[in-house]
């Protein structure tokens, strides 16, 4: 299945040269969302006496949320980091929903949710090493800050934007787990993923990562309904931003609240979506929702 997903990803790119924001925006076009749903539904997740089906949705936050460390953090080059850092470039969320067997397919309960934060980079080769981007011998740049955050989750406050003065969530303390995030390098129409650890190999394709998520072998479990820890609170907060806030009116064709889109309801076209993600001053943060519905007794 992962090869099918990687071929689908490659088909979204018509040339080999893209900027980082553009490469991310091309990844979540309508054709990819529709194709991913088809691939997953032709490769159902197997459990005895349970039938599965998938839906794919895309949401976004119109400004990438930022972390501000509660105390100075030392980067891998020895530099002291005090500036805010963006929390990845996109996120993938798997939700498993058990359905009642009735005409309405009522959701009985959500059994499992897991999230993966992805830090996207351009790479000049296949199978690069994390953090993929350049780290200066001294001083601070974005790659250094991203690695410091995702490789250890130092205590931080969450802000909606670079100029925000009020935290969304204060004093987050998240125990590190390698399943929570990854670095992903784009090279020659393919994304290469690896752990958020200095010099870790990025030798998994994005198709492999998505397949691992659907098999419960990637992404880290979270509880959106009843958050029990700061990881749960972080992911829930980012999802809530998608649901609550209104989309900018000049990006939509019809009035609809929130930023959570069905992949199969044309509320926004590909050109408008790319324009939103490609805003240089405030690039958007896409969230790919993979919804798996489990029906007992099939």
Automatic annotation (TrEMBL):
It comes from the Bacteria. This is Uncharacterized protein. It comes from Hymenobacter jeollabukensis.
């Amino acid at each position: 299945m992962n090869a099918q997903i990687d071929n689908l990803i490659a088909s979204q790119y018509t040339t080999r040269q893209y900027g980082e924001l553009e490469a991310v925006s091309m990844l979540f076009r309508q054709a990819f969302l529709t194709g991913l749903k088809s691939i997953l539904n032709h490769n159902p997740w197997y459990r005895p006496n349970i039938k599965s089906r998938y839906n794919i949705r895309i949401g976004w936050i119109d400004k990438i949320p930022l972390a501000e460390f509660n105390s100075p953090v030392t980067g891998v080059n020895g530099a002291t980091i005090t500036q805010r850092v963006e929390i990845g470039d996109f996120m993938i969320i798997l939700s498993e929903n058990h359905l009642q067997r009735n005409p309405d397919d009522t959701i009985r309960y959500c059994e499992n949710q897991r999230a993966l934060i992805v830090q996207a980079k351009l790479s000049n080769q296949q199978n690069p090493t994390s953090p993929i981007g350049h780290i200066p011998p001294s001083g601070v740049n974005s790659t250094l800050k991203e690695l410091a955050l995702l490789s250890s989750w130092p205590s931080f406050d969450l802000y909606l934007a670079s100029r925000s003065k009020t935290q969304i969530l204060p004093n987050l303390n998240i125990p590190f787990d390698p399943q929570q995030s990854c670095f992903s390098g784009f090279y020659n129409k393919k994304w290469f993923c690896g752990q958020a650890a200095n010099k870790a190999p990025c030798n998994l394709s994005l198709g492999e990562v998505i397949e691992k998520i659907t098999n419960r072998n990637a992404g880290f479990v979270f509880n959106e309904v009843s958050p029990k820890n700061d990881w749960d609170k972080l992911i829930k907060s980012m999802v809530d931003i998608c649901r609550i806030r209104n989309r900018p009116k000049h990006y939509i064709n019809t009035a609809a609240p929130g930023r959570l889109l069905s992949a199969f309801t044309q509320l926004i076209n590909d050109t408008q979506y790319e324009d939103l993600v490609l805003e240089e001053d405030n690039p958007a943060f896409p969230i790919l929702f993979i919804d798996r519905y489990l029906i007992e007794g099939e």
